[in-house]
Amino acid sequence: MQFDKYFLYFLIYAVIGYICEVSYCTIINKHLTNRGFLHGPYLPIYGFGALLVVIPLMYFNANPILVFFIAVLLTSSLEYMTSFFLEKIFKSKLWDYSKNFGNIHGRICLLNSTLFGMMGLAATYWLHPVLVRSVSYIPDGVLHSLSGMLLLGITIDATSSIIRMSTFQKQLAEFRIRVRELETRLELLAKQNATPSLESLRGRLNNELEELKIRLNKRSRWIIDAFPSITAKNEEKRLQLELLKMNVRSYREKMKGQRKSR
């Protein structure tokens, strides 16, 4: 039953982390901002980070200053490694703190690490003891069934979300190839003498190019909202992601203007 208990702790911390991050980003961005690429309202990195802190610190938590710095070290290491491996998997850096003070390779920064340390203190001295007492009241059979159902749901969610992210990466690559093809054809047409048939073809190609951009913009909003600082080492892909960010911001400003005019 130990696994069931710790899995429930993990999920509760993941939900709390989601609420904290969504609230923070919503205030900063001035619109409701969903974070993470999972469908559910939880961020696993917070669940792992919390357990990484509270489990070892249960045995030596007499010194709050030491607890703070250990929490900073453990959670920052987790965030750095998570960023590193996600970049290897998706060929994109999902968050980039390069513009933040005290960052290391854009993967972690001083502000976030400090906030994680404070959250580690709160979890160690207040939240985790409450969780332990609360979960202890749940009958073993109920706890086992509950954790099994939740684990199945998260597994399905994670699989679906990874597929969606991989599909987005594939669409982005295909979009770049198709845009280059269309732009090359349009350049060739521009060098030829205008005729009604060529003008008609140019119009169709321009329309197809615009439709491609509109479809990609719609499909990219979720990832841009979840990871507004997403970037890539590949220069062409990086520029494409920056353009998508601009388009998403433009779309939001347009929607905001329409709401005000009603």
Descriptive key words:
mainly alpha; single chain; 2 domains
Beta strand count = 0
Structural class: mainly alpha
Q: Note poorly predicted spans.
A: none
Percentage of residues assigned to helices:
over 70%
Amino- and carboxy-terminal Cα gap: 56 Å
Strand content: under 5%
Total domain modules:
2
Topology readout:
Blueprint: H1 2-29, H2 44-57, H3 64-90, H4 110-136, H5 140-190, H6 196-226, H7 235-261
Helix pairs in contact: 1-2, 1-5, 2-3, 2-4, 3-4, 5-6, 6-7
Give structural notes.
The protein has seven helices and no strands. It has 262 residues and is an all-alpha fold. It has two domains: 2-156, no CATH class; 164-247.
Question: What does this entry show, briefly?
Answer:
The chain is mostly helical and 262 residues long. It has helices spanning 2-29, 44-57, 64-90, 110-136, 140-190, 196-226, 235-261.
